[in-house]
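Section 5.1 Outputs to date
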Amino acid sequence: MITFKVDDLNEMSARLKALAEDLRTFGVAEEDIFASRLVSSELISNVIIHGGEGAELKCELLDGKICIRVLSPSFNGVNLTPPKPDVLAESGRGMYIVRSICLGEIERDDDGVKVFIKLH
């Protein structure tokens, strides 16, 4: 399991780069690494920007999927199934992007969310 805590966007970027390297060592395909970084970035950014607090990420490979958990009390009030956003809007696309990549597999998980990305 790969795990880390972040509380600012610069630190998030560095940690997600390290996450990608860790996933490569497990033989994960580049397209799945890209999807994992994008989903993780969207979820963590939502916490930092909109919730004003840090987040903990936990990532593991399970049954042909990448399981990503992002934990933060900020997710308690987040709508995990928002309406389709305006593509030109400055914000509000994060959960739509996450849902699109994860094929709808998003779950509430304690103080956060759990998503799954199918491995290719």
